[in-house]
């Protein structure tokens, strides 16, 4: 059962000392060998990665030139234009649920840390707009949201470049008869968060995003249900929402309140806090589970003294912090011998970057309020949370037992055989002839490095013993995803300005 706050046994003074020793050991593990990192270079590459994931007609300023136009007729079978957007990982399907979460986290990265991005801010804004332009297309029809393009089973049966795709580009939607409050709630959150990003930079576009977010959220709340129930055959087991849709409704309302400043959304949060299970699984955060993110996001208002009716969210946020600290045994969050956060499930690095982002964001909110986190008798400072987040980032960039950067193109040693079709197959510029569905298998099975460098891609990462097989066939470890990189952008922006 999930803890509702820091409900640990009272920590004795002796245990507090042991805890601090364990944290110190984690933070300074291998620090002498690291020699520091070029966080701005890593930031630049982490944003560049999104250009390698683009679908549709590529713009003239496309920097990863080995990619070409792809999926130019998406949506045609349904009579709509669904070109653009992102492939979420190493395949060629456009899954709306993780894409929307990616845009929410990329927007949050800019909202909180855009001032630290320097010359890369413009590229980060382009990365958001590429995604939100697609989400606007997917939500253009009242009462309908298009949530996926491409048949995942057909796609996963092939190993081919997106430029060559001849697999089914089936279009999947939710509507009043086939609800999907989870994907709709996340889409509303993404549009609302992006509206904040563009509020002063492009007011007309910002208003369009916010107005659409309001309509999408109304649809999500009115027609409640999980999209993995109504579209089970298409989205499961790939992005099946096993956590339920309730968290996405609170998440969407929280972002709409932040973006619109309308009291109705705050009242919605207060009214539905218990019904929508705000205190559940407080140490989970990712495309499927928004609980920790909800609590941290809403806590900012509480810490500023502007939301006394939302104090339970701050208690939950404190509980989240306590549950992921090293040295406190918790069944859902562990650390590898080398100091990496480890959680059950595929693509562990998604947990590392998302949870680390929350550590950093909450640390900043606490700092501005001059607050600490009480965990039993141990008082945890904002500075310690920043150190914990930085330790995870440094591990990704090479401070780990294998001395390997898990970001492609960063450092002297990084994964060369990532599970990614476009990267592993010859580019259309090097091999203009069509490569068919099964013709690509020999490249998938080849021991050779990928011919195209997907710069900035962060792979799923090592296992719980810090071991990493640099092989395409080990997709849990070697596949990159957009939702791993999105929160990392914010982390790298901050540490580039505060090394």
Automatic annotation (TrEMBL):
Swiss-Prot/TrEMBL catalytic activity: Endohydrolysis of (1->4)-beta-D-glucosidic linkages in cellulose, lichenin and cereal beta-D-glucans
Secretion signal, residue range per the UniProt entry: 1-33
Keyword Signal assigned: yes
InterPro entries documented for this protein: 6-hairpin_glycosidase_sf, 6hp_glycosidase-like_sf, Glyco_hydro_9, Glyco_hydro_9_Asp/Glu_AS, Glyco_hydro_9_His_AS
The UniProt record lists the keyword Hydrolase: yes
Key words of the record: Carbohydrate metabolism, Cellulose degradation, Glycosidase, Hydrolase, Polysaccharide degradation, Signal
Pfam families xref list: Glyco_hydro_9
This enzyme's EC code(s): 3.2.1.4
GO BP term, example: cellulose catabolic process
Entry-linked Gene3D superfamilies: 1.50.10.10
Gene Ontology terms for molecular function: cellulase activity
Active site: 419, 470, 479
Domain Glycoside hydrolase family: residue ranges: 39-492
EC category: hydrolase
Family listed: Belongs to the glycosyl hydrolase 9 (cellulase E) family.
Protein name: Endoglucanase
Gene source species: Cinchona calisaya
């Amino acid at each position: 059962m999930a803890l509702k706050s820091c409900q640990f046994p009272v920590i004795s003074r002796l245990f507090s000392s042991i805890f601090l020793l364990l944290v110190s050991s984690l933070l300074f593990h291998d620090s002498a060998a690291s020699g520091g990192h070029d966080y701005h270079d890593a930031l630049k590459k982490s944003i560049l990665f999104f250009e390698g994931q683009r679908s549709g007609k590529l713009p003239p300023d496309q920097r990863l030139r080995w990619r070409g136009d792809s999926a130019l007729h998406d949506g045609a079978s349904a009579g709509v234009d669904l070109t653009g957007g992102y492939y979420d990982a190493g395949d060629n399907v456009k899954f709306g649920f993780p894409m929307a979460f990616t845009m929410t986290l990329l927007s949050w990265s800019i909202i909180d840390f855009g001032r630290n991005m320097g010359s890369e801010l413009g590229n980060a804004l382009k990365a958001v707009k590429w995604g939100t332009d697609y989400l606007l297309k997917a939500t253009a029809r009242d009462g309908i949201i298009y949530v996926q393009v491409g048949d995942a089973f057909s796609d996963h049966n092939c190993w081919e470049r997106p430029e060559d795709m001849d697999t089914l580009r089936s279009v999947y939607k939710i509507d009043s008869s086939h609800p999907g409050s989870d994907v709709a709630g996340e889409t509303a959150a993404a549009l609302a968060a992006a509206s904040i990003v563009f509020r002063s930079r492009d007011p007309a576009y910002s208003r369009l995003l916010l107005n659409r977010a309001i309509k999408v959220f109304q649809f999500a709340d009115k027609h409640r249900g999980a999209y993995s129930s109504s579209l089970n055959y298409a989205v499961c087991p790939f992005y099946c929402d096993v956590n339920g849709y309730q968290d996405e409704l609170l998440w969407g309302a929280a972002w709409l309140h932040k973006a619109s400043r309308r009291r109705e959304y705050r009242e919605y949060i207060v009214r539905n806090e218990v019904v929508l299970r705000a205190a559940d699984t407080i140490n989970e955060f990712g495309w499927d589970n928004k609980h920790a993110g909800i609590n941290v996001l809403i806590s900012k208002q509480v810490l500023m003294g502007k939301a006394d009716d939302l104090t339970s969210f701050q208690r939950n946020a404190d509980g989240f912090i306590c549950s992921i600290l090293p040295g406190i045994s918790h069944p859902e969050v562990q650390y590898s011998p080398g100091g990496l956060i480890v959680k059950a499930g595929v693509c562990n690095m998604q947990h590392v970057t998302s949870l680390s982002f929350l550590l950093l964001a909450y640390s900043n909110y606490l700092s501005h309020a001059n607050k600490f986190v009480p965990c039993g008798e141990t008082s945890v400072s904002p500075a310690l949370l920043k150190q914990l987040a930085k330790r995870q980032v440094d591990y990704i960039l090479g401070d780990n037992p294998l001395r390997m950067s898990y970001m492609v193109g960063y450092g002297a040693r990084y994964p060369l055989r990532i599970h990614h079709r476009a990267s592993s197959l010859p580019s259309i510029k090097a091999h203009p002839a069509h490569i068919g569905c099964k013709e690509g298998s020999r490249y998938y099975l080849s021991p050779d490095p990928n011919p195209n460098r997907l710069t900035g891609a962060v792979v799923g990462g090592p296992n719980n013993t810090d071991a990493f097989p640099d092989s395409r066939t080990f997709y849990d470890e070697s596949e990159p995803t957009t939702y791993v990189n999105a929160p990392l952008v914010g982390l790298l922006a901050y540490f580039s300005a505060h090394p």
